[in-house]
Amino acid sequence: MPLICERFDTLGLEDPSREVRLGIMGGTFDPIHMGHLACAEQARVAFGLDAVIFIPAGVQPFKQDQQVTDANMRFEMCKLACATNPFFDVSAIEIEREGLTYTVDTLRQLHAHYPSNVALFFITGADAMLSIAKWHDSAAIADLAHLIAVTRPGYVMTDEAKAELAAAHFDVSYLETTALSISSSMMREWVREGKSIRYLTSLAVHDYILAKGLYKD
Ligand code: ATP
Ligand code: MG
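Predict the joint structure of the above. Result:
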């Protein structure tokens, strides 16, 4: 049984003198789509990340009043999407944890699991980065991980917003990624309206959504 995920549990052990860079991509992933995957891949290359772990959230404090697809199905879709990239894997640590999902708990768990030569890089889109200073125990988040803010169509990181993050001691790097104007909400809406979502996510995830009849009502 993996503690964190199947592929990368022993990261950093082989050579304790080498810094290993681990990317973390958090989200609801309801469903995972090409926007998530392309951002993670581009961040991996740009920052020389050794691996990226996608961590689907359990119950998020700010989405408590929303209907969210069963966590195991969101996890499975992430697994299907990540299977073809040897640098990607998916962790169930947030969906297995009791109570509300807080990123700070996840980062603490990763920090405790991996040896000290593993550095954490938390990847988020501009929309999430704009709110991160308001997240639970954000000061600890700033201590535990470097942040990579990727561009997202429809959201602008102003110089003022960047200055606020720097003032709150977040170590943020900004990365311009290919603009993919895709969101999970849009995909759920399109399925409900009977529109095709082919090519907005991996074919395996597309087929899974259709086979399970997800997002139809
Ligand atoms: P929803 O519409 O349900 O909120 P979403 O598409 O925003 O779904 P999330 O699971 O909420 O997906 O997002 C997970 C992470 O991926 C967040 O950091 C978010 O900013 C980022 N992200 C999602 N879609 C994109 C995209 N198209 N481009 C860049 N970043 C993205
Ligand atoms: Mg979102």
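The chain has one domain: 20-212.
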